[in-house]
Specification:
The protein is built from 8 helices and 9 strands. The protein has helices at 2-23, 74-77, 82-97, 99-110, 124-127, 180-186, 199-208, 214-220; strands spanning 38-43, 49-53, 63-64, 69-73, 112-115, 141-144, 148-153, 164-169, 174-176.
Length: 222
């Protein structure tokens, strides 16, 4: 009798194994559209760890993961824009290395307060649209002049590359456009920062491509 029990147990284990092989993937193997496998690693002269990742990682957008690590695809690392992109990403590395300094800096020179969670008054359906950004994930909600909540929001396609900057007006309780006072401070001759949903992205852009607007002038004077 016990022989039949052993045979049954072996058959059951074999069935489970075969089902797992056909329906699942081995543990630790990334799947889907956000394949962030690290293909190779380089240590740059300044100590930055550069990780080359699969093309589908964060839709191929360069980003930081820790205060010393930048990730990008091989095509970007081999492109003529590599040094320009690294200048931008090194600002994000410094922001992660010195969070207290940067929090106080953007508050002092630009009147931004940063928050880990959405401020009270932003409705749940708006909070749910937040698009995560590895470079600002510690405090993704930025409130300008105590009233305007800046954040990146997913569109219907849920893609990183097509997400838009949004502003919630805490006083009027609605989504709004950039206030004229904000444009006067952060834009020059109609040209505004490309990624204006967060002061950390604005700062990285100004450090990479200096603007003649008042906000850039005060930042670059620090």
């Amino acid at each position: 009798m016990w022989v039949y029990c052993v045979i049954g147990l072996v058959l059951a284990i074999l069935v489970i194994f075969l089902l797992g092989a056909s329906l699942g993937t081995p543990t630790g193997t990334p799947t889907g559209a956000d394949d962030c496998r690290v293909l190779s690693t380089r240590l740059l002269e300044d100590g930055t760890r550069l990780e080359i990742v699969a093309d589908d990682c964060k839709e191929g957008l360069p980003h930081t993961t820790t205060s010393t690590t930048v990730r990008m695809t091989q095509s970007i690392a081999s492109s003529p824009r590599f040094h320009e992109i690294m200048t931008h990403e090194r600002v994000h590395l410094d922001q992660k290395t010195r969070p207290d300094y940067w929090h106080s800096l953007v508050k002092r020179i630009w009147a931004y307060d940063l928050y880990e969670k959405a401020p009270q008054g932003v409705p749940a359906n708006v909070v749910a649209t937040l698009r995560p950004n590895p470079d600002t994930e510690a405090a993704p909600w930025a409130v300008w002049r105590g009233r305007y909540v800046f954040f990146p929001a997913y569109g219907d396609d849920k893609r990183l590359s097509t997400a838009k900057a949004r502003i919630w007006d805490l006083e009027e309780g609605r989504l709004t456009e950039e206030p004229p006072e904000w444009r006067a401070q952060f834009c020059f001759e109609g040209a505004c920062p490309h990624q204006w949903e967060h002061p950390y992205e604005i700062a990285a852009e100004y450090k990479t491509h200096p603007s003649q607007c008042p906000a850039a002038a005060v930042l670059l004077a620090e």
